[in-house]
Design brief:
single chain, 316 residues, alpha+beta, OB fold (Dihydrolipoamide Acetyltransferase, E2P), four-stranded mixed sheet, 6 helices
């Protein structure tokens, strides 16, 4: 409705003073409705003029599902407004896969999770190592990598005298250490001087593919927190793919089985829920076996008592 049509319509409307009270209310209601429709029409034209949608259509879109597929090195996996993440490289507007792995698109980033790969030490990484050799002044540490590293006594919290390394650690001991540096020829140096770094006493270790470590930890530590809570185990995950676990025999058994499942199904969507269900099923199975063992033990004890009584009766 144009401004001239509105003015002529208002002039043609009867004055409110000449109408009875009920009709006055009706006219007022009609004018309010007409004014509301006019405001809505103008607002709609204003939004369209700005090239934007009407306010009622501006609702948050649901999160786009995560897209995953296997890609090969050099394959174009995205272009345009996507941003390159780990395992990719960009040339112009095109993003390419840098390795064989699972393409993952989330929150505007596209990345490739390698299907497999050995750990390559990087400065600042916290890793779980094992002592594989000893010298008079140092220990040689296996990093679950193509490279090993010496750990000198000066890089530990102990005052290690020459030829006394065996007093502090021996072959087979496990340590939580930090990669202090990697030179151009991949000579690795490590240290045990730092917050939380120490010799790990007791427990058990297992090795997984280092490329699966981010999946094992989860976003914001969600997966590792779930594992600790449901398995009741203490866990330390090194960036080198070595995991240290401590707990009861049954708890460690459940935890190791769950970690293997994560490693083998790292590409799967909804893995957190699947792992939780898997642990619950294992718990039920172990509880059933435990109850069966207790029943068998009780039956054996009862049989032994009865046999002892019978033997005494026969002797009398």
């Amino acid at each position: 409705m144009s401004e001239e049509e509105r003015i002529s319509r208002e002039r043609s409307s009867p004055p409110l003073q000449s109408l009875p009270p009920p009709e006055v209310q009706q006219v007022e209601n009609a004018r309010r409705e007409e004014a509301a429709r006019e405001r809505a029409r103008r607002e709609q034209e204003l939004w369209k003029g700005r090239g934007r949608r009407e306010p009622e259509d501006r609702r948050p879109r649901p999160e786009e599902p995560v897209s995953r597929e296997i890609v090969i090195p050099g394959e174009i996996i995205a272009s345009g407004r996507m941003r390159a993440g780990p395992g990719t490289y960009q040339e112009g507007d095109d993003i390419f896969a840098a390795c064989l792995g699972i393409k993952t698109a989330r929150d505007g980033y596209i990345s490739v999770i390698p299907l497999t790969g050995k750990y390559i030490p990087k400065q600042g990484d916290v890793v779980v190592g094992k002592v594989i050799e000893m010298t008079p002044s140092a220990w040689v540490i296996d990093l679950n990598s193509p490279y090993v590293s010496p750990l000198s006594g000066a890089e530990t919290p102990w005052e290690v005298e020459f030829n006394e390394t065996s007093k502090y650690m021996v072959i087979g001991d496990t340590v939580l250490i930090e990669i202090r540096g990697v030179d151009s020829i991949k000579k690795v140096s490590v240290t045990m001087n730092g917050p939380g770094l120490r010799k790990l006493v007791g427990g058990q270790t297992m090795d997984i593919d280092a490329s699966k470590v981010p999946r094992l930890i989860g976003r914001g530590g969600s997966m590792i927190s779930l594992l600790k809570r449901l398995t009741r185990c203490s866990m330390l995950v090194g960036q080198n793919g070595r995991v240290w676990l401590d707990g009861t025999v049954d708890d460690i058994h459940v935890a190791m089985a769950a970690i293997r499942k994560i490693e083998s199904e790292a590409h799967r969507l909804g893995l957190t829920d699947a792992v939780a269900a898997f642990i619950e099923d294992m718990r039920k199975e172990l509880d059933a076996r435990k109850a069966e063992r207790e029943l068998t033990r009780d039956a054996r004890e009862e049989y032994a008592i009865m046999k002892e009584r019978i033997d005494k009766t026969e002797e009398e």
